Amino acid sequence: MQLKALELTGFKSFGKKTTLSFTKPITSIVGPNGSGKSNVAEAFRFALGEQSIKSLRGKRGEDLIFSGSAQTPRSNKASVKVTFDNSNKLFNVDFPEVTIERTVFRDGVNEYSINGSKVRLKDVHELLAHANIGQTGHHIISQGEADRILSSNAKERRSMIEEALGLRVYKYKKEEAQKKLAKTEENIGNVESLRKEIAPHLRFLKKQVDKVERAKELKDELVGEYQEYFALEEAWLKEEEGKNKDALNEPEKRLEEIEKEIQDLPEDSPVDTSDFDTKVQENEFKLRDLEDESQNAFQKLSRIEGALELTKKNQSTEEKVSIHADTFSEFRNNVLKAGEEGERADSFGDMRKAFDGLLNVVRPFVDAYKTAEVETEDTTELEEEHAQLKEEYEKARSSVQEIRTSISELRTKREEVRNKTQEGQIKRLALTAEQAKLIALTTSHKERAERLRVEREEFEREHREALALIGEEAVRYEKTKVRDEARSVQEERKRNIQRMKIRVEELGGGGEEVMKEFSEVQQREEFLGNEVEDLQTSAEALKELIVELEKELTSTFNEGLVAINTAFNEFFVTMFGGGSARLVAADAKDEEEGVEDIGIDVSVSVPGKRVKGLMALSGGERALTSIALIFAMSQVNPPPFLILDETDAALDEANSKRYADMIENLAKRSQLILITHNRETMSRAGVLYGVTMMGDGISKLLSIQFEEAVQVAK
Ligand code: ATP
């Protein structure tokens, strides 16, 4: 047996704990009116999660709690436990037995538990759905509710049929899938909006990162440029400085020498030859005197020599003149020579004048001599005088010669002095000129040195700048090859570095932080992207599942409907001895509704009656039709148990028999609990419970035999 027991504590008229055991396929509950039989059926509905208090014949939860009697105080709570055997895995849980308990308190609070563990109502519903025990109560037919399946609307009917067909579980699955889908779509929306939120930031960061990367590339490029630039500049500076220093060496040394040389030069004064001039003048005066003297001496000598000549017979006058002329000529030549030796024209002129004077003196002597008569006399005296005169003359001549030499020397010396002074001046001039040239040269070299110093400072400043902007690597150029190139190439390189530097500065720093943030945000975006993908995948899967479930629902429903219709018609024909009955799809009112939402109508045709439709049925006929449908539903998909509360009340004897036969047939697959006053029905039960209520207002339960039951029922 799948249904094992029912335990009521404080539920309605069951003020005391009462347990019903269901050990046989058919259990009948019998008892007088108002003893509390229907309360038992309601106890099932209550325990299985019925939410309509009204359908439990109450207004509030409190109405379900034993209200007490004169002898017995009221209960604080009503509690009902239903126990099932789960050895055949009726329920989808790993317990051999499943007990579902519901308690309601006076404040209206409900508690549910499964095997003693508190659960939610939803859990109870789910558990039951798996066991084909539904909420719509298609298997618990309350008193007077037998035709509920007929009186309810098409939609509700469909719901009951679905439940009877065990499709509730699909519905649950579908609803769950739909809820999950809605949640998933909501999540997709949330994640998408998160993505949207971070998208501009990510785009911004991407731009920054691009900038940083460009800056990095540019920096790498700049490092190369810098290294090359520095290496070349260093080499160039070194070479230029060396060259300039060397170039300065020579001229500086020379300048020092020149300075010394200039210092060593005599003072630069005008040429002073006055001493010499005075001396020359004095000597010239002296010469004039001497020349006079010499002339006198010569005249005297000439006279004597003339006289002497006359005495010499063998000597022709012309010869003598010639001799004298020779002597004179010699003298003249001597004078001329002296004059030539004096380099000055005026001195020569003086000489010439002196000579001409001398010639005037000599000429008369020659003339006189030519005409003179030669006397013959003793020459001794004359010769002596001649000798003396000659000596005097020679002496005078020699003095003249001396004085002339002296004049000449003085003049030469005077010239020397003059020349020497001029030479000094020339030398000074030359030195000064050279000095000026050298000063200009050294100045230009010094200027060059200064420029190089400035360039070196600039180089060092650039060095520091590169270090600050790029870092160590930019100034690591020891290994950079220095190529031979024009200076203009380096200058262009420098300009290029300037341009690159500006761009690097413009692109800015702070790269690492940006990269880090970008990577984080990108990761987050990737994560969100994956999340969306996952969510979309699961949304797709859910949609597919929903479609599958719908398909299954529809096909199972349609198949079930066919089977129910067959059984329904059979039961109907059995009950009515003819006619026909079937379930039909109601007209779809709303086009948007799915196939599974289409309601179900009941179409009946009672034998021998022309009027068709449910409206045309009598109370008894309605009851028979209801029973036929309920039994048909139960047969197609047998529930674990079926509770029928006085469903047989309206049946006549013949129908009671048919009803009892059908019950026996149904009991083969579902446990039956039958609340009944019907003898025929009681007769088919394996177990009979009698419910009584004495004067204390508490329902009591007792196991009874058929005969007793018949008695009790009466
Ligand atoms: P019938 O054969 O006429 O259908 P029944 O045996 O099905 O009668 P029930 O309807 O189950 O009888 O029981 C009704 C009885 O239960 C009434 O006597 C009513 O007073 C009692 N009852 C209902 N609610 C409570 C309650 N909260 N406390 C005590 N007794 C209650």
Report on the architecture of this protein:
This protein is of the alpha/beta class and 714 residues long. Among the domains are: 1-133 and 641-714, Rossmann fold; 274-424, no CATH class. It is built from 15 helices and 14 strands. The chain has a 6-stranded antiparallel beta sheet. Strands 8-11-12-3-13-14 form a 6-stranded mixed beta sheet, sandwiched between helices. A two-stranded antiparallel sheet has the order 9-10. Strand 6 (110-114) and strand 7 (117-119) form a beta hairpin. The longest helix has 97 residues, at 168-264. Residues 12-13, 31, 33-39, 63, 66-67, 143, 697 line the site of adenosine-5'-triphosphate.
Per DSSP, the total helix count is 15
Please state the overall shape, judged from the principal axes of the Cα atoms.
rod-shaped
Overall helicity: 55-70%
* CATH fold title of the domain at 1-133 and 641-714: Rossmann fold
- The CATH superfamily of the domain at 1-133 and 641-714 is identified as P-loop containing nucleotide triphosphate hydrolases
H/E series: EEEHEEEEHEHHHHHHHHHEEHEHEHEEH
Helix-and-strand structural type: alpha/beta
Percent of residues in beta strands? Answer: 5-15%
Largest sheet: number of strands, sense, barrel closure: 6 strands, antiparallel
The count of β-strands is 14
Distance between the termini: 30 Å
